[in-house]
Amino acid sequence: MSFQIHIGTNVRQSPFFDATVADGVKSFSVYNHMYIPGHFGDPDAEYDRLLNGVVMWDVAAQRQVELIGPDAEALAQILTPRDLTGLKIGQGRYVPICDHDGLMINDPVLLKLADDRIWLSVADSDLHLWAAAIAAERGLNVTVSEPDVSPLAIQGPKATDVAVTLFGNRVKELRPFAFFETLLDDIPMVLARSGWSKQGGFELYLTDGRKGTALWQRVKEAGSPFGIGPGAPNDIERIESGLISYGADMRRQALPADPFEMGFGKMVSLDTHDFIGRAALRRRFDAGVTRQRVGFVVEGACVSSLQRPVVLEQGERVMGMATDLVYSNRVGASIGVGIAETDVTEQSEGLTIALPQGDFPVRLANLPFI
Amino acid sequence: MSFQIHIGTNVRQSPFFDATVADGVKSFSVYNHMYIPGHFGDPDAEYDRLLNGVVMWDVAAQRQVELIGPDAEALAQILTPRDLTGLKIGQGRYVPICDHDGLMINDPVLLKLADDRIWLSVADSDLHLWAAAIAAERGLNVTVSEPDVSPLAIQGPKATDVAVTLFGNRVKELRPFAFFETLLDDIPMVLARSGWSKQGGFELYLTDGRKGTALWQRVKEAGSPFGIGPGAPNDIERIESGLISYGADMRRQALPADPFEMGFGKMVSLDTHDFIGRAALRRRFDAGVTRQRVGFVVEGACVSSLQRPVVLEQGERVMGMATDLVYSNRVGASIGVGIAETDVTEQSEGLTIALPQGDFPVRLANLPFI
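Predict the joint structure of the above. Result:
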């Protein structure tokens, strides 16, 4: 199946949109009401560069929710079960965010820019509305907005070479999720060691949307000696690496899940601070978790992608959902992720996946696959 | 420019997805994290059917936010500036929804199913998160969820003939936005006289997602004698008719606007009830509205669509934004909508639009165009 995407004013264009079009983008998806590139015509080469070289991704659709004001940190701490104590300026942290039922509604990276200024680099849901509602209803002294900030990611083993070319040796000292504000000529940004892959790299959070094409060209030129090419967040690598995709692996409205089920139990700090969903998560914890995130290998089928979630079954009984599936050359099999009853994770004999091609046996596997 | 859309598990499929694929859908967009058809290969014929015959649209992406419980009505009234007094079971109403700053975050149709059960049929933002946050923070006795409800629209002058064939003569008695719950064979739904066009018609809110293909086929068969065909919400007709598109004409994060600016002043009831944004809207009203929604005709250019908002200028001065633009055969010109300073609406001489093709003179026009 192949369909066109409608390009209209109802979906936003990234500051890098024109540059990705000039560089031959072939497909888009929509994320946070913004077009995000899918691929540039050669997915195998794009995957290979991510693993062995360096790629550049327009991930402007990973929007920022900015909290500014004396209560910025207080609001951030109310929003997440994760204890933010000790987080310093210039550090980032992955933070699950739950609603009052303890179910996840987003899983951003939090960046502390100042004591009174925080960014939440959000997955695909309107966390802006959520944070603004909580701030106003609790009378907190904080302004919630979505500022002009658009990340461009460079990922892969040679990403550091590109970053050193652009920003100098100081980038080598950045620890994971750490960042600093900087200028590249006259292009303002926040440079972070982060990105949605396990291959290492950086995210350049452009803070002036008028300079998207200029930044894209600068990165492309600096990356040229290292064979950089355009690409996009990669489904195969993310499943091999066990990365979560809010929207695919869970979504509040469609596939609700709590942080325990998604494997984030260590980030839920029930006893240190007050946060939204705390009472519900305590009840869930006390009752015992009955589902959990799983990885699996499909046996006897060579499936390259899943277009919608399908059920995992044991005989007649539905035991879970497969939420994504790819063919991995490195594993040499079709591998997937999903959520399943803990019964299954203890005794997975006879587990099958209901693919459009038919039912196939499934073997559970530890995450990450690689 | 033509691009493919990535079909993956991170975006939901409508219950009518398979049926639209079987009927030859050619393009999609994404709305409320769900694929929504763009066109079926012959936009002119689809427009013609909407105006002179009857079309069927998969608008399942117009998701429902359901409020259930003793405080359902109280929550609905807190969410909207519009006074809901007198709204009866079986009636619907268009309701602007604002944040605490008085800026619009959605503009759903509200359906009152029971005293303790309300649907908000939402535009493209996660109003579910907003409503859930407000309900929980205020301690209201109401459950907020997104249930299994997926509208299929039939629109056009012959839509009534199709509805009579399916449901009998009682559909003729439905007033605009009125609805009733019913079964079509074993397919459960809410049938409403409504839809996002000015050509008249109905929306069939399917309440069992497993029966999407069955409902699509039933409507297709009943519509066959009247020349029904598949289509999608139509940008040309909506601009000719002056319909608002949240996401295109305004969006909280990208193009913020209040209800006065969007022409919904009569729906803002500052003195009858408490609601979110009331204080801000009173201040805005007292200060005087300085921008307003406008329609315009582009002179000397034949432009068939706008792919991103562009500025309206008077000399060097930016006076507003054009948020959508189409070529209308009925008007015989390129017509658009946008938002502009009230200065401009009083004295529009020398107004130009900054199109990719160059600057062109613009003449303001009353909405609707037709």
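Chain B has three domains: 17-63+149-239, 64-145, 240-365.
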